[in-house]
Amino acid sequence: MSRLRGSRVVIVGGTSGIGLATALAATEAGAAVVVGGRDPERLGQALELLGPGAEGHVVDVGDENSIEEFLDAAGTLDHLLVTPSRLVPVRVAEATEAQVRPALDLRFWAAFHASRLAAPRMTGAGSITFTSGIAGSRPIPDEAVAGASCAAVEALMRSLVTELAPVRCNVLSPGYVDTPLLNGFLGASRDEKVAAIAESLPGKRIGKPAEIADAALFLMGNDYMNGHVLTIDGAHTLV
Description:
By secondary structure, the chain is of the alpha/beta class. 45% of the residues lie in helices and 18% in strands.
């Protein structure tokens, strides 16, 4: 029997990509799922996929008050997953603050506000999981901003392990995954770039959202996983 059965899982950024895949997997595991996203239309589409047992609310992850209203609507919870991110392909020497600040702010402040506001709403010793990415530990051309935001979230998690105890805190660090976020990052030459990335990996492919979702559920369901950055990248950090 799944260890998540009967639990309440709240996903900030749960209407597409890794967040939606995790919502689907958690629903299949018997959890009650609450998802949040900025776009009402996409939220409605996600709820159709998740079925009548799921719940969803619009949330602006860049707005502290909106996150608080979302969590108020979600109610008590056992597990929180925070996925919002934005990729800005730019070289530091050519970047402006106006270009990079939205990407830095989105990932960090979504994690910061969601975790501090969710912790008091948790039933017992729940879990908080953030998403980062391999750019936080492996230099990747044009992804310095993404790397900095990933590293910031990972550092935040380590402090929260003691501050929010007994709530467990972890980070899920994916490699390249076939999501709308990746499509927007790679642009018109997406297929060619994905093919090149896949060719460089031992498995000759990029990841699937469902594979990352499996790892997210593991972090939620294993009561001894705490203070860890779990990398799931097809060995990208080794090649």
